[in-house]
Amino acid sequence: MEIEDLIFVGFNSRVAALDRNTGDIVWSWKAPKGTGFVAVLLDTDRLIASVDGYTYCLDPRTGSTMWENHLKGLGTGVPCLASVAGQSSYPILAEAQKEQQRSAANAGT
């Protein structure tokens, strides 16, 4: 399954990948350390999950752990993630709107 076919959900120390067409769970993962809220960032070909001061890099296709960093000495709490390569919905929505405008323009000609 391709990354584009997945939706990632994080909560309660867990991350799940859902099939975007059916909603079925493709894989699930539980943080070995840390509890509570999970921040999730799709970073191109890596899925970053951070929970309670522990940060993990997962393979978004399989959910397997690629690396982990306990960020010793930085504290705990609700994490915030950012990356130059990370994807948010804004660029995707912007491209979808452009495509919709192109389709509407072509339909009018």
Quick description:
This protein is of the alpha+beta class.
Question: Any overview of this molecule?
Answer:
With 109 residues, this protein is of the alpha+beta class. The chain contains 1 helix and 8 strands. It has one helix at residues 89-107; strands at residues 6-11, 14-19, 25-30, 39-43, 46-51, 54-58, 65-69, 86-87. The strands form 2 sheets. Strands 7-6-5-4-8 form a 5-stranded antiparallel beta sheet. A 3-stranded antiparallel beta sheet has the order 1-2-3, with no helix packed on it. The longest helix is centred in the last third of the chain and has 19 residues, at 89-107.
Keyword list:
alpha+beta; 5-stranded antiparallel sheet; 1 helix; 17% helix
Lateral strand order in the biggest sheet: 7-6-5-4-8
Spell out the helices and strands N to C: EEEEEEEEH
Number of helices: 1
Oligomer: single chain
Rg, rounded, reads 17 Å
Structure summary, number of beta strands: 8
Secondary-structure-derived class: alpha+beta
State the helical fraction: 10-25%
List the helices and strands and how they pair.
Blueprint: E1 6-11, E2 14-19, E3 25-30, E4 39-43, E5 46-51, E6 54-58, E7 65-69, E8 86-87, H1 89-107
Antiparallel strand pairs: 1-2, 2-3, 4-5, 4-8, 5-6, 6-7
